[in-house]
Specification:
Layout: E1 3-9, H1 20-23, H2 35-41, E2 48-54, H3 62-67, E3 70-74, H4 80-92, E4 96-100, H5 102-107, E5 116-119, H6 126-135, E6 141-143, E7 168-171, E8 174-175, H7 186-190, E9 195-196, H8 199-211, E10 217-220, H9 229-245, E11 251-256, H10 264-273, E12 275-283, H11 287-292, H12 303-311, E13 316-323, H13 332-342, E14 348-352, H14 360-367, H15 393-407, H16 410-423, H17 435-449, H18 454-467, H19 472-519, H20 525-545, H21 548-577
Parallel strand pairs: 1-2, 1-3, 3-4, 4-5, 5-6, 7-10, 10-11, 11-12, 12-13, 13-14
Antiparallel strand pairs: 8-9
Helix pairs in contact: 8-9, 9-10, 13-15, 16-18, 16-19, 17-19, 18-19, 19-20, 19-21, 20-21
Bound molecules: cobalamin and iron/sulfur cluster.
The site of iron/sulfur cluster has 11 residues, from helix 7.
Length: about 600
C-alpha cells in the first residue's frame, strides 16, 4: 500500500507583496504557488501518494492530517504563526512532521514540535531522509553542507496544485548571487557563485507549466536572475524561441541587480523574451549607506537613469527600499520619497532594516551587542525593530510611516504610474484581451470611482484614455494594484496607531497608580479602577475596528495588554477591599 504524505504550505499574512486585495478583481486566490514544496514533491519515490494543501488557496482540514501518514511543511519566517498552528494539529493527531525551507533552515534551533528538519537545499539529502525513514532510523536533522548542482532539481509537480487559483506561476533558473550585501541572507543560504540550470531543463519546466493550461505570467524566482550574465543570455535565446513557437503565451518577471541597466544586449533579450517587470534592490539613494551596506554595485551608475533605461525597454521596475541603516540621516525619508517619485516606480517595497539570522549584519550587530529580538520576517508591517538603531527607533518608524503614506497616497501613486506609462514603448505592458479583465475593469470602475480617492483615480484613467490609449489596460492593472497598496498602507498606519495607544495606555495607568502610591490617597483607587476599565473598553473597540489581517499582527500585543488589564484590575479590587494594603503587590 502506498504511504500518504501531506505537503502543507502555511498561510502568509497580508503584506505589500501578497497583493491580496487586488486578487479578487481577477478571481485569484494567491499570487504564487509554493515552488519549494512542489519541488520536494518531485523527489518522492512512487510508493508515496501525495497531497498538497496551500493554505493560501484552501483550508487545511483535520481530516487531511488524520488521513496522512507523514506531514511535510515548508515556510518563510513570516509564516511562523500558521506554521506553529499546523504543528499543534499534527501533534494532536500524533503525526510525524518534517520541516524544511527558509524558516526552518534559519531558525530550527528554536522551533518545537518538528520530528525531522531538512535544512538548506534538499536535492542531495532528501533521498537519505526517505531511505532512513524506510529503515526505521530517521535522524532529527539533515543538513546539506554542499551547494548542489541545480540540474539535479527535478521538474516541480505543477499537477499537485490548481493553477487557476494563482495569478502567476513560479520557476527557478539560478541560485546564489555574486554580490555581497551585508544584510542579505541569500548569499549565506545559496552562496556567491550563481548556479544555473541548463536552458534545456528550464524549458522543460516551462513546458510543464504550459501543459497545465495555465494562462498568466511566470515569475522567475531567482534572487539575481542576471548573476551569471552569459548563461542567462543563452537561456533568453531559448525562451525567445519557445515563446515564438507557442505564440507568446507568457510574460515574465524576475529579480535582478541594477547593473542590468548597463547591458544593452541583456535588456534587448529580456524585452524580446516577454519580460515586463523586474524587481531591483535599490535600497537607498544615500551613497554612504550603500557603501556601508556593501551594496557597491548600486554606486557604479546613476540609479534614476538606470531605472529609466530599463523602463524604456518596456520593463517596469519594482524596487526594494530600506530605511534604518546606521548612516541614515534625518533627511533620508524625504530622499527616499523623492527618489521613488523621480524614478517613477509604482511598486516600491519600502521596509525597515530587519536583521535576518545568519547574515553578516547579524554577526556585526551581535558583536556590537545591538540585537534585540529574532526577526519576525516582516519588515513592512511589524514595526518593531529587532536591533538598536542609530536613529532613535520612534523617529525611524515615524519616518517609515511618512514614506509609505506619501508614496501610496493615491495622488502620488497615480502620478508615478502615469510617468512610467509615458516612458515605456507603446507595445509593452499592455494586457492581451481576456474576459476576466473586463470584469476587473468594471469592478475597478465601480469600487475605485466611488472611493475616497475617486477623483485621482478618474483623473488618471481619463488622462491615459485621452493621451496614451494604448496603455489603457496597463493603467487599469496599475489602478487595481493600487487598490491593494492603498488599503494595506491605511491598515499599517491604523495598526501602528493602535499599538502606540496600547503602550501609552499602560504608561498612563502606571503613572496614575504611582501617583496614588506617592500621595498615599487610597480613596482614589476606585477612580483608577474606572479609568482602567474605560481604557480597556476603548482599546477593545479600536482592536475590533482593525482589519482582520492587522488584528492578527496585533494579537500578541493586545493579548499582553489584556493580561496586564486583568492583573491590574484584580490588584485594584484587592486593594480597594483592603485600603491599608494599597497596591502593595502591584507588578510592573
Ligand atoms: C518566491 C518568493 C516569494 C513569493 C512567495 C510565493 C510563495 N507562494 O512561496 C513572494 C514574492 C510572494 C514572496 C514574498 C515575501 N518573501 Co519571499 N521569496 C521568494 C524567493 C525569491 C523564492 C522562493 C522559491 O520559490 N525558491 C525556489 C525553491 C525551489 O527553493 P526553496 O523554497 O528554498 O526550496 C528548497 C529548499 O529550501 C527545500 N525546501 C523548501 N521547503 C521545504 C519543505 C520540506 C518539507 C523539505 C524537506 C524541504 C524544503 O527544498 C527546496 C529544494 O532544495 C525566496 C528567495 C529564494 N531564493 O529562495 C524569497 C524568500 C523566501 N522570501 C523572503 C521574504 C522575507 C519574503 C517577504 C516576507 C518579504 C517582505 N518583507 O514582505 C515577503 C512576504 C510574503 C508575502 N506576504 O507574500 C525570504 C525569507 C527569509 C526567511 N528566512 O524566512 C527569502 C529567503 C528571500 C530573502 N532572503 O529575503 N517571496
Ligand atoms: S544583490 Fe540582492 S541577492 Fe545579491 S547579495 Fe545583494 S541583496 Fe543579496
Amino acid at each position: 500500500m502506498k504511504k500518504k504524505a501531506l505537503l502543507v504550505y502555511p498561510e502568509i499574512p497580508a503584506t505589500y507583496w501578497s497583493v491580496k486585495h487586488s486578487l479578487k478583481f481577477i478571481n485569484k486566490r494567491a499570487s504564487l504557488p509554493p515552488l519549494g514544496l512542489m519541488t520536494i514533491a518531485s523527489m518522492f519515490p512512487e510508493n508515496y501518494e501525495l497531497k498538497l494543501v496551500d493554505m493560501n488557496t484552501s483550508s487545511l482540514k483535520d481530516s487531511d492530517i488524520i488521513d496522512a501518514d507523514i506531514i511535510f511543511i515548508s515556510a518563510m519566517i513570516i509564516q511562523k504563526r500558521s506554521f506553529d498552528d499546523i504543528i499543534k494539529l499534527c501533534r494532536k493527531y500524533k503525526k510525524r512532521v518534517v520541516a524544511g525551507g527558509p524558516y526552518p533552515t534559519s531558525s530550527y534551533r528554536s522551533i518545537k514540535g518538528v520530528d525531522h528538519f531538512i535544512l538548506n537545499e534538499s536535492e542531495t539529502i532528501f533521498g537519505d531522509f526517505l531511505s532512513d525513514l524506510e529503515k526505521g532510523e530517521p535522524k532529527k536533522i539533515y543538513l546539506s553542507e554542499i551547494k548542489p548542482d541545480i540540474n539535479l532539481t527535478p521538474v516541480p509537480r505543477f499537477d499537485l496544485i490548481n493553477v487557476k487559483d494563482y495569478n502567476s506561476m513560479a520557476l527557478q533558473f539560478s541560485r546564489g548571487c555574486p554580490f555581497n550585501c551585508e544584510f542579505c541572507d541569500i548569499i549565506e543560504m545559496f552562496g556567491r557563485k550563481p548556479r544555473t540550470k541548463n536552458p534545456e531543463n528550464f524549458i522543460k519546466e516551462l513546458e510543464a507549466i504550459y501543459r497545465t493550461g495555465f494562462d498568466g505570467s511566470v515569475f522567475i524566482v531567482d534572487d539575481n536572475f542576471i548573476g551569471n550574465k552569459s548563461r542567462v543570455k543563452e537561456l533568453l535565446v531559448r525562451i525567445i524561441e519557445w515563446q515564438k513557437k507557442n505564440s507568446f503565451p507568457y510574460t515574465f518577471f524576475t529579480e535582478a541587480s541594477i547593473d542590468l541597466a548597463a547591458d544593452e544586449e541583456l535588456l534587448d533579450l529580456m524585452s524580446q523574451a516577454g519580460f515586463d517587470m523586474v524587481f531591483i534592490g535599490i535600497e537607498t539613494p544615500d551613497e554612504n549607506s550603500l557603501h556601508h551596506a556593501n551594496k557597491n554595485q548600486n554606486l557604479k551608475l546613476n540609479m534614476v537613469e538606470a531605472v529609466h533605461r530599463i523602463q524604456k525597454r518596456g520593463i517596469e521596475v519594482a524596487g526594494g527600499f530600506i530605511v534604518g541603516f546606521d548612516t541614515d540621516k534625518e533627511d533620508i525619508f524625504d530622499r527616499q520619497i523623492d527618489f521613488i517619485s523621480r524614478a517613477s516606480i509604482p511598486m516600491a517595497m519600502v521596509g525597515l532594516l530587519d536583521v535576518l539570522p545568519g547574515t553578516q549584519l547579524y554577526r556585526r550587530l551581535k558583536k556590537e551587542n545591538r540585537l534585540l529580538a529574532d526577526s519576525s520576517g516582516n519588515n513592512t508591517h511589524d514595526l518593531r525593530l529587532n536591533f538598536i538603531t542609530e536613529m532613535p527607533g520612534e523617529k525611524l518608524v515615524e519616518g517609515y510611516k511618512k514614506i509609505i503614506s506619501t508614496i501610496y497616497h493615491p495622488k502620488n501613486y497615480f502620478q508615478r504610474c502615469y510617468s512610467l506609462l509615458k516612458r515605456i514603448p507603446s507595445n509593452s505592458l499592455d494586457l492581451e484581451f481576456k474576459p476576466v479583465y473586463i470584469k476587473a475593469f468594471l469592478m475597478s470602475l465601480i469600487k475605485q470611482s466611488f472611493s475616497s480617492y475617486g477623483f485621482y483615480y478618474l483623473k488618471f484613467i481619463t488622462k491615459v484614455l485621452f493621451t496614451n490609449i494604448k496603455h489603457f489596460s496597463a493603467a487599469i492593472s496599475f489602478a487595481v494594484k493600487g487598490y491593494h497598496f492603498f488599503r494595506i498602507t491605511d491598515d499599517i498606519i491604523d495598526a501602528d496607531e493602535f499599538s502606540v495607544k496600547l503602550r501609552r495606555s499602560i504608561n498612563s495607568i502606571e503613572a496614575s497608580i504611582n501617583e496614588i502610591l506617592r500621595k498615599g490617597k487610597p480613596d482614589e483607587i476606585h477612580l483608577i479602577y474606572l479609568k482602567v476599565q474605560n481604557v480597556y473598553t476603548y482599546l477593545q473597540k479600536k482592536y475590533s475596528k482593525l482589519s482582520r489581517d492587522m488584528q492578527e499582527y496585533q494579537r500578541d500585543p493586545f493579548g499582553n495588554f489584556k493580561n496586564y488589564y486583568e492583573m491590574i484590575m484584580l490588584r485594584l479590587k484587592n486593594s480597594f477591599n483592603n485600603k491599608n494594603n494599597i497596591l502593595q503587590k502591584r507588578t510592573g
